[in-house]
Amino acid sequence: MKIGLVDSGIGLLAAAAAVRRMRVDADLVLSSDPEGLPWGPRAGEDVTERALQCAKAAASLGLDALIVACNTASVHALPTLRAAFEPGLPVIGTVPAIKPAAAAHRSVAIWATPATTGSVYQRALIEEFGNGAEITEVPCPGLADAVQAADAEAVAAAVGAAAALTPAGVGAVVLGCTHYELVGDRISAAVPGAALYGSADAVAAQALRRLGADGDGTIDGVAGGTPAAPGGGTRPGTLDVLLNGRPSALPEVALAYREGALLAATPATA
Questions:
Q1: Minimal CA–CA distance to 38: which of 61, 74, 75, 10?
Q2: Which residues are catalytic?
Q3: Which one of 14, 20, 37, 184 is most buried, by most CB atoms within 10 A?
Q4: Which residues contact 267 (CB under 8 A, 6 or more apart)?
Q5: Quick one: pLDDT at residue 225?
Q6: Which PANTHER family does the UniProt entry name for this protein (predicted)?
Q7: Is the pLDDT of residue 204 over 80?
Q8: pLDDT at residue 79 above 50?
């Protein structure tokens, strides 16, 4: 199977690595927009057009599923992408994990970009899935940019500022931007005792379900779904990287994160 992922930058690494862990044989196409990032401050129409261009570039390589690995793009572009590609190509969006967090904890903080914090979209999710929990919306200015640049000092400053706005003793922190999942360890250290809720694992699992596959090497429950490599064993999945539609190596900044290192260990198709 071949799964494409779309984001403005390296936020897609978390979901891509989750797919790789669940299905070592999955071929991955990472399609991002370094010339247009970040998407958060852009108008919805602009985000939609840029996400559509990234999706078309990925789909040109023959995908079986497409993951919109970006909260902002999922808000603005998901209807357009589904109209463009479904039903032939399943499109899976990213939604903050408010529902499971609020189901398990009575006090929840949602860390998100300033543009998302307090937005109609996020407030609607809280209203629908908040389950009566005490929910605090925490803006994280500069955190996504710092993660994108792998700037450890800027990450530490942004995480510290967000932690200062997070109620003491909060039970859970929902990561409302895919970039944040790449620094989950630093967020955990800044909010001790809080459970972190990201979206990457759920999004990856949903993509595999849409394909009738699971994470143990079967398809539709039939053993042997994972392709065999010559000489035996499992054929490792390949990795293609598209930067504004152009084939590229995995950006060096991605290697600063364990998710990027995991993906870099897989072969390219060329």
A1: 10
A2: 70, 177
A3: 14
A4: 236, 238, 239
A5: 43
A6: GLUTAMATE RACEMASE
A7: yes
A8: yes
Tokens 């897609």 correspond to 12
- What token pair was written down for 59? 């789909």
Domain 98-197 listed as CATH 3.40.50.1860:
yes
d(CA 176, CA 267): 31
As a whole number, mean pLDDT of residues 55-66 equals 98
Tens digit of pLDDT for each residue in 87-116?
Answer: 999 999 999 999 999 999 999 999 999 989
Between CA 220 and CA 233 the distance in angstroms is: 21
Residue owning tokens 């109620």:
167
Phi, psi of 236 (to 5 degrees): -70, 145
Domain 2-94+200-264 matching CATH 3.40.50.1860: the answer reads yes
DSSP symbol at 181: G
Question: Buried b vs exposed e over 217-246: b needs ≥16 C-beta within 10 Å?
Answer: beeeeeeebbeeeeeeeeebbbbbbbbeee
User: Where does residue 249 rank: exposed (0-12), middle (13-18), buried (19+ CB within 10 A)?
Assistant: exposed
Task: Give the separation between CA 221 and CA 216, rounded to whole angstroms.
Answer: 9
Query: Where do the domains of the chain lie?
Result: 2-94+200-264, 98-197
